[in-house]
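User: My instructor asked us to take a sequence, write out its structure as tokens, and then describe one feature of it. I'm not sure where to start. Here is the sequence I was given:
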Amino acid sequence: MAINQKQSIQTEVDAAYLYECIAAAEEDQVIASTFRELANIEKGHAQKALEHFPDQSLPGPSTRAKMLNRIGKIFGYDYVIGVMMDVEKSISHATAKKKISEQLPLAGSENNHVRILQSLIQNKTSVSGEKLSRIEGRHKTVGGNALRAAVLGANDGLVSNMSLVMGVAGATDGGSGVLLAGLAGLMAGAISMSLGEWISVKSSQELYERQMALEMEEIETDPEGERRELALIYRAKGIPEQQALDMAARDMTNKTQAHDILVKEELGINPEELKGSAWEAAYSSFILFAIGAIIPVIPFFWMTGLDAILWSLAGSTVGLFLIGAVITLFTGTNLWRSGARQVLFGLAAAAVTFGIGKLVGVSISG
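Assistant: Let's start with the prediction itself. The structure tokens for your sequence are:
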């Protein structure tokens, strides 16, 4: 079996496994049945592909899929859905690109994996407007999840402070000034990141809260216009006109429910995101940046000179590789390749700043 074919089958198996896990954790049975149906379709794709290889058996879920399930249990499965959708989009793009290169016609089914959940939702006529909005709202908001932010925050801290530490080490031959510079870089970077995060979250919350208040005002002053808007939203999803009108009328009997749907569908706002504290985001950003930034500084607490520089590079290399390995949970790429790439880029940045520091140090001493 060719490598790319094996990977394709494994992807389908992993998707089926993860959708089943999501369904098992979902309290709403209508939503859970949607995920189970999606899992069955993914499993069917894998079994169909395996028919071309009668000597092979269907593999079990990969280690990556099991890790994603464990992460889902800790951070919530909204994150896992986002990762899977990203992977499926990349697969559909690769499929279309391959057909184009082989001069084969595009059948329009290349994006089925990306569209399948939306199609299932649209075909579930018993799904209420509230549930429909709830399912689709997940897919609009899973991008800015906590785990991705944690990895990227630690990566920013590690790469930026390692570059600073190596620059000063190059200028001072690893002298005692490196420790002070490293701690200063850690504090400056962490404070800057946390302040930026606070401003970003606070300003977004204020803007969204104002838009939501205006939407509720429109429901109060022009309920008929908002009912028509709801009906148009449902019709745009492929729901028949009369059913869309009935759903919109039912939603308008509960102003809070109608407001929630219009906020998500018309404004593209997920109210759940507004519950987060700007201060919590700032604290988290500070801590995550500091965790990465402290790694290249640690050896200089106990030593100076070449030994400290080498230990700093060794610790930073391990940290960079681990970050690259964790990134594969988002991308699905090879762990070793991702880790090595992260190390290569990080060390390249450190080499540049070390070289600049060396030149500056020689110039000053001369």
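For the description part of your assignment, you could build on this observation: The longest helix spans residues 177-221. Try explaining in your own words what that tells you about the chain.
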